[in-house]
Amino acid sequence: MKKNSHALSLRVPEPSGRPGDTPDFSHLQFDAAGAVERPEVGATAYEMRDLAFRLIRVLDDEGHAVGPWNPRLDPETLRRGLKAMILTRAFDDRMHRAHRQGKTSFYMKCTGEEAIAVAQGMVLSREDMGFPTYRQQGLLIARGYPLVEMMNQIYSNAADPIKGRQLPIMYSSKEYGFFTISGNLGTQVPQAVGWAMASAYKGDDKIAISWIGDGATAEGDFHNALTFASVYRAPVILNVVNNQWAISSFMGIAGGLETTFASKAIGYGLPALRVDGNDFLAVWAATQWAEERARTNQGATVIELFTYRGAPHSTSDDPSRYRPGDEHEKWPLGDPLDRLRQHLTVIGEWDDAQHAQALKDAVEQVRAAGKESEAIGTLGQSRPSVKTMFEEVYATEDWRLVEQRREVGV
């Protein structure tokens, strides 16, 4: 029997820092703001393959918008974006406190990732269908979805629009282009591709967009979706939100050290963009590029949004057990709110007084919504009618449902 000349060993990827370590991001290499070229929308995946390994950035360290990806947004649009991000963070803070107060069983914040959902929610129409994961609350907030309705869903109270059928934070609103969130990782990506294929098959004019975390790219659903998106040129935008950490495993466990997540698209013949996810303007520009490609029947685009999850994975998580406590503060791409604020200030369209007022307004808006929702009830204080569990599943009740309803007395 032939033997190896060396003993075999198994490599288990390790992050650059653990609790107690000094955060180290020296291994990250970024393009300077404005340095990455912007290809024509009709470029082939092969022609633009280098963009899967680079990083599209628009805002430089001084807050100036530079380079070919600058979307040249008007100041009012920029202000709306900043205010939506501020409101999203204020909403997160209040609902996280609500969990600590026993008012809900679960919550997930999107701290540090606000630019992604807010910018993309503003670029696309409500009629385009979004297939989100659980950190895209900014999509609803940017589109003006009532905060009270979001809170009612989180509290599973009598006014819960989903009637207690979903885990808190798993919103659903067809009117706002927000497909029901699933707790199963990766399922929303093939759903988005299928929805987009149906839109194209019908000759409609609507496109789809989905989001998935870096860890969930290891799921088979992600790769199945890329195959269908490529073969049928589905009008869909497929986002990988690389926020560096899944629950307690870092992105290297899903293959993020071997290559970029954007580059996974190349093997499927799909164009890929790798974007600074904390740069509101870069996220906007890349989404706009992919949107034009989809709307002109040139197919899908994969976008890796390079960011950092600043908060715990959820209220059930303690990140101090697996990463340096101040790692988020040392993230080299900064905070998305601070960066857009800096840009608006540099161009003379924002100041400290406006910022203080925006923070105050957001807190007051969230507080008012909280009072209204909590008056209906928090967890366990009120709940949807029991009879709703027999409704909206079957078009017509069969004898089993009739009998079950009779037993329950509704």
UniProtKB/TrEMBL annotation:
EC number: 1.2.4.4
Keyword match Oxidoreductase: yes
Domain 2-oxoisovalerate dehydrogenase E1 alpha subunit N-terminal: from-to ranges: 7-45
Keywords for the protein's UniProt record, in alphabetical order: Oxidoreductase, Thiamine pyrophosphate
Catalytic activity of the protein: N(6)-[(R)-lipoyl]-L-lysyl-[protein] + 3-methyl-2-oxobutanoate + H(+) = N(6)-[(R)-S(8)-2-methylpropanoyldihydrolipoyl]-L-lysyl-[protein] + CO2
Region of interest (Disordered), residue spans: 1-24, 311-334
Obligatory cofactor(s): thiamine diphosphate
Hydrolase found in the keyword field: no
Enzyme class per UniProt: oxidoreductase
Dehydrogenase E1 component domain: residues covered: 83-376
Biased composition (Basic and acidic residues): 315-334
Function: The branched-chain alpha-keto dehydrogenase complex catalyzes the overall conversion of alpha-keto acids to acyl-CoA and CO(2). It contains multiple copies of three enzymatic components: branched-chain alpha-keto acid decarboxylase (E1), lipoamide acyltransferase (E2) and lipoamide dehydrogenase (E3).
Protein family membership: Belongs to the BCKDHA family.
Protein name: 2-oxoisovalerate dehydrogenase subunit alpha
Organism per entry: Brevundimonas nasdae
